[in-house]
Design goal:
With about 120 residues, the chain is an alpha+beta fold. It has a single domain (about 1-115), classed as Gcn5-related N-acetyltransferase (GNAT) (Aminopeptidase), CATH 3.40.630.30. The chain has five helices and four strands, in the order E-H-H-H-E-E-H-E-H. It has a four-stranded antiparallel β-sheet with strand order 1-2-3-4, covered by helices on one side. The longest helix has 15 residues, at about 10-25. The chain is globular, with a radius of gyration of 15 Å.
Length: about 120
């Protein structure tokens, strides 16, 4: 499993993980009509993995055999109490495809966050 910063070319793969994760995790909680309309093509347009602006979100992907299996996105904290602390961020999302298949691997563990600095 390779953990690395997301690149512009990863947008569609990350979007597929995002959409599949939502469709799986929220089925029965959100209307099927809404979930069925989610499209990776729409989601991919929202990502800007090329920015190096420290105030923008940053995404790390988990890849294996050339496929992105999951990702985590962090951004600067919006909480004024935390802004005074250097390097403090908030976790915006952690999404993984096929979580049952990855159980017990680093992709689904808290060690991943520690190893990547999340």
């Amino acid at each position: 499993m390779l953990l690395r910063a997301a690149e512009s070319a990863d947008a569609m793969s990350v979007a597929r993980v995002h959409v599949r994760s939502w469709q799986s995790a929220y089925r029965g909680l959100l209307p099927d009509e809404y979930l069925d309309k989610l499209r990776p093509e729409d989601r991919a347009q929202r990502y800007d993995f090329a920015t190096r602006d420290p105030q923008s979100p940053h995404t790390i992907v988990a890849a294996e055999a050339g496929l992105i299996r999951g990702f985590a996105t962090t951004a600067p904290s919006r909480d004024s109490d935390w802004r005074a602390m250097p390097n403090c961020t908030r976790c915006m999302s952690i999404l993984i495809t096929g979580i049952m298949a990855w159980e017990g691997s680093y992709i689904g563990s808290s060690r991943t966050a520690c190893r990547t600095g999340l």
